[in-house]
Amino acid sequence: MRRYSLPHPYLLSFFSRDFYRDVGQNWRGLSFVHLLLLLAIAWVPATLKIHGGLAALSGERAEKVVSQIPSIVVNRGEVSVEGPQPVYIKEPDSGKVLAIIDTTGQVTSLGKSGAFLLITKGQAIFRKSDSETRVYDLAKVDHLQVDKETISRWLAACRRWAAVVLYPILVLCSYIYRVLQVLVYACLGIAIAGAVRVPIGFGGLVSLAVMAVTPVIILGRVLELLHSQPPFAWLLAFGIAMLYLGFGIKASAGGDPPPVPGAGSAA
């Protein structure tokens, strides 16, 4: 009989031997429910941060950037621009060049301009990093028209809907990733269980692996909120998860844990 329920992993996964024993023996499918709820909670701060960042797009600085964008038409892969060229889109305060638009051939590369985008007569060139750029041929674009009003509408739509759309996608993608991760960890747990001579099935190992990554996920979100990232974070996270997995496997060697008042009915 299961002794602990869904509220318990957020604290007990950090230290409780009895909790890990109960998970290894009785949780099975419930561990995946916990994982989904944990990730749904964990992504709330990041989504709010994204929403705040998008809200900043409505500020005066954004409007000053948008006001510099000319009317651009792509017709059968060929770009035409209204007004004199080259057009340099600049950051309002610093004057840093953000983008260049030139269909005359005067500017053919991003070079040392510092801009992240160059639109030529037939290409869009993006600066991915200081040492890497991506070139996209516009030949397949049959027709596209972009101007200040269009971009303003795009920004408004992003401010309104992006966070709402992104949240379930982020939760789902991270859930799939974590499920695959715990399956791999459970396979590693087979070796650990054999080494310490603890008889435990694969289902129990999977449940223990979910709880082993729970402190890692919680600590990771806390560090993100504190804007702190330790070196080799992924390796540290793996090491912590393996320690908790080993701890849980050893805990599973004992008998049933003592009952927790009220937990059985909550389960």
Order of helices and strands: HHHHEEEEEEEEHHHH
Number of helices: 8
Strand order of the largest sheet: 3-4-5-6-7
For the report, how would you describe the main beta sheet? Answer: 5 strands, mixed
* Estimated structural class: alpha+beta
End-to-end gap: 10 Å
Mean pLDDT: 87
Low-confidence regions:
none
Roughly how much helix do the residues carry, as a percent range?
A: 40-55%
Q: In total, how many beta strands?
A: 8
Strand content: 5-15%
Rg for CA atoms: 27 Å
So what's the overall shape?
A: elongated
Please tell me about this protein's structure:
- There is one protein chain.
- The protein is an alpha+beta fold.
- 54% of the residues lie in helices and 14% in strands.
- It is built from 8 helices and 8 strands; from the N terminus they run ααααββββββββαααα.
- β6 and β7 (132-137) form a beta hairpin.
- α3 runs parallel beside α6 (202-225).
- The protein is elongated, with a radius of gyration of 27 Å.
- The N and C termini lie close together (10 Å).
Topology:
Blueprint lengths: L8 H4 L4 H10 L3 H26 L4 H7 L5 E4 L2 E4 L5 E4 L6 E5 L15 E3 L3 E7 L2 E6 L5 E4 L1 H49 L5 H24 L7 H19 L11 H4 L1
Helix pairs in contact: 2-6, 2-7, 3-5, 3-6, 5-6, 5-7, 6-7
